[in-house]
Write the structure tokens for this entry.
Amino acid sequence: MAFPVARAADRGLVRRGAGALLVLLPLVFLAGTFFLPLWGVLSQGLRVEEVWSLARVQALLASPYVHHLLRFTLVQALLSAALSLALGFPLGWLLARYRFPGKELVRAFTLVPFVLPPITVALGFLLFFGHAGYLNRALQALLGLASPPIRVLYSLWGIVLPHAFYNAPVFARFVAAAWEGLDPELEEAARTLGARPWLAFLTVSLPRLLPAVASAFALVFVFCFLSFAIPLSLGGARYATLEVGIYYLARRDLDVPGAAALALVEMGIALGLTYLYLRGGGLFLAPGRRGRPREQLPLFSRPRQLAWLPYLVLLGLIFLGPLAAVVASSFFLPGQGPTLKWYAFLFSAQTAPLIGTSPLGSVLLSLRVGVAATLLSLALGLSISWTLHKLRWVVLETVLMAPLSVSSVVLGLALLIAFRRPPLALLGGGELAIVLAHGLIVYPLVVRMVRPLWQALDPGLVEAARTLGAGRLSAFLTVELPLLARGLAVAASFAFALSLGEMTAVAMIARPGLFTLPLSIYHLISARKFGAASALATCLILVTAGVVWIWELGGRKWLYRNGQA
Amino acid sequence: MLAVAGVSFGVGEGELVALLGPSGCGKTTVLRILAGLTPPDAGEVWLDGREVTALPPERRGIGLVFQNYALFPHLSVAGNVGYGLRFSRLPRRARARRVEELLSLVGLSGYGRRRVHQLSQGEQQRVALARALAPQPRVLLLDEPLSALDAALRVELRRELRALLKKLGVSSLYVTHDQEEALALGDRVGVMRAGRLEQLAPPEELYRAPATLFVASFLGRANLWPGVVRELAGPGRVTVQVGEEVIPAAGEAQPGTQAQLFFRPQDLELGKGPFSARVETVEFLGDHWELQARFQGFELVAQASAPVSPGETIRFGFKALPRLLLSSRG
């Protein structure tokens, strides 16, 4: 009975000063740092000599190179998603149906694609599957071959395979979560009605898993469609995606208006895909438990289950091989043996010509940007999730979450253009632009993580604090903030890892001397300095592992322990 | 949409007022307005001779016990009870003493370091009460504080609660949809219906002399017969025609007025008297038999001390005069 009245009260609060400010601040901030720069892209791409025209876009759409880009981007994204599905679905089955030692670790591993920087994947793939990579060398030694037997680099498969291994865990995660949420009694009912086990699966469980599989497919398709670091470092100009194409136009050919026009073409396509991406939001929700939990069988309790063994070996090879290759090559001098030289290089303050700064400078820049972007995304994320929690207007949500629907290359391009002229040019240079880009890329995810927690808070708690003498601000500080703190800590670690590994927007914005870790790795790879690149990448992998640990092993217990009785 | 309209009442110093009504009648809204959690569109809230309508909740000095307790899950029991003292000028040691004092008052000495989720429902309820009392509110509001508990515990805690509030002499307003609870707890009981206060009176008066049809039918078993006032039969006396029969009643109205006759089953005398009714159903309820009978086409609920069979005709009269109720306000 109090419900509509309580909402009226909230609107009253918003009307009263502080609340209105909290809503307005992020709006104004986004207007200046996102919508204005985006307008810059629009006017660069759609204006020829100060006159609005579609000429640039039409010229692009007629160009055979753009056709090739489009076709390749779509084909590789479809193939990558399909291969990820094939690789990841059985793992999801395994996680949902069986218990085995190390299962928690495997489950934690399924979070990797969301935080592991793609540049480390590209490096690992080169080192492991490359012509002179560990796998080829091992096979050559084993089989006595003269030339490397595996030749996948610099082909369509050279892009699709790393994408697939990078994204297969997404499927495992979605499928396992959906499966564990299914009530096993439905399948049991089917059995009592005469269905054999596989038929019960086919007619009862599978149809209920399809939505999860579909949203995972959409998510992975979008990831691969917008992939940048992997095709850039493994594909070259021939196997370039749209994102890489825009980057080449803007940064290699210095044709910013052309890049803007291509960005508009991509945005047109991406807008349709965004809808699918939004449907994939289930990742950040607590696993729903309906009905009785499924009974899990111990793995390898029956001889038939030995069939899992080859799959697990293949999986281990594909997943752990490249990562292990990165770590290994960071400790070896080719042909000479173990060394710490690459780590000495990592912490040297001497300028390395390849990256235009000292390696240490690159590390420190990444850390500075990471911390600043994390703080920015937390501030934005917290105020926006509060706003969306109070005012559930679809239009407001669309506006406040808009950066989600713009690819990182386009965002980088927008900021590149915007920082060349007032008002943003007044704020100075590149480092701030990188922080902004990362803040804008990450905060929607912070909102996704924080908002459900906020909504789960009993509004009575704040009211109780108010009747006990706390003002609105102290009620926030003493009640809401402590209850959200753990969620915020997880979101912060996530944001930090994403910023540390982000290379797409950075590649658009950065100039020599402002190379963050992933960009330095990319340039070291281009120069075939694999040892140095591996040392930097190993640091990124360690940070990633830390975040996964916080999220999966510590975080989930933290997050949901505060569930109110 | 109006949730509440035309509700006006006061709570005296140290008095316990219970607000009773079906769910959705606006009881909770009244509490929220008093606590300052919902701003009223019109009307005023006064406290100790001071208007507080515009004050935010934290500056009213009104304690509220929430229906679901709203205990802070991140704080210990002591942290919860001591929360409101953070905003007082009490030194740290005095605060700790006050927390201990309140915990022992509600019978939870030594529970201070426990986590809230380790407590039973009844214990959580006591913590919520202690927390609301800690800052010494000038008025304590309780929003169905016992509704989450099972029946036996509810009765036990109800007694404790009344004794405690009376001992402390806190002015309290208690909201509930349970009539037994309201009658047992309140010094005065207010009955609400659809956002309006129908009657505010001591429980005995409310039960014996309801002011409206709604109050009459909402509280306890009641007989209500529609009739027409026939003639005045002295000061405060009328006769009322029900069907073919004429019945004396207490009340005043012009002859010809449509009205309802109200009386409790206990007001009847069975076995003799001027009227007769045909028994339809009989239920054995332990200490008596409850009859449903038909009188002039209307339902009669009565209590018999000896078994009666359905189909029998019984005679009855009135020990206490039925009361005349004019059609309900609102």
